[in-house]
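SEQUENCE, STRUCTURE TOKENS:
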Amino acid sequence: MVKLKYTLKNDLLFKMVFTKFPNLLKILMSELLEIKYESISQFEILNTEIPPEIFGTKFCRFDILMRINGQLVNLEIQNRDQGNFVERSLFNWSREYSTALTMGADYKDLPITIVVSILNFNQFDCKKYHTEFRPLEVISHMPLSDKMVMIYYELMKLPKRLDPKNLLELLLHLFAAETEADLIKIKKLEVSIMQEAIEAYKTVSNSAEFRELDRMLAKARHDEAQALTHAKEEGRVEGKVEGRAEGKREGTLTIAKNLLLINLPLDQIVKATGLTHEEVETLRDAN
């Protein structure tokens, strides 16, 4: 079984494929948002660029921000569970929503803002692979606002069987694909859109542009990990040194206290311990 070197769960590849083939992205979003493709009258990708200077920075993200029929939609894929993902997606929503208000505009002009997350891990304690959240009153379920929508797709909960009539599941299975055999199973269904998606994936993943950007990103992430490890090591060494120094001083103070108890003259205690006159006097007065 030949494993794929790169999968669509690779966030850089994910962004490059769907920004270079915008019609595929439009098809994907119509399925993820459960709206008809023909009903999409406005479709604009707002962040097609991938500036290499952000690689390795805290804000190195490869989500895709779109304006679809007047709504702001943020799409991202998360390959590993690094904890606090819900909080992270809420942060992403709040950032997009709060920065959408233009100078002089009214709050009512803020757009419906949707965050769609495709996850390669189980986030929620339910069997459904698709969950959607909106703010509701807890008893009556009366909606507070239609401006906040959080949508999650969990790849590990997909049904094993491929249904050629279910385009949404086929697209999600393409994200989940790990081997050449997985791709062949999808291709054998002869669904034209899936054939097109697989070709787009192969075109980008085999391109020199993607390989170079992936190399730069891997190096940046390696350097970041090395810097973090070095900082932790320095912190541990510093802590040990400070601990030893603190322990040595505590021992010196204890000796000085004992010498005070036998009424040794201050000058001799200073000479024996290396403490200052003021420090010894403070110890004496404290007793």
Observations:
- The mean pLDDT is 88.
- The first strand starts at residue 43 and ends at 45.
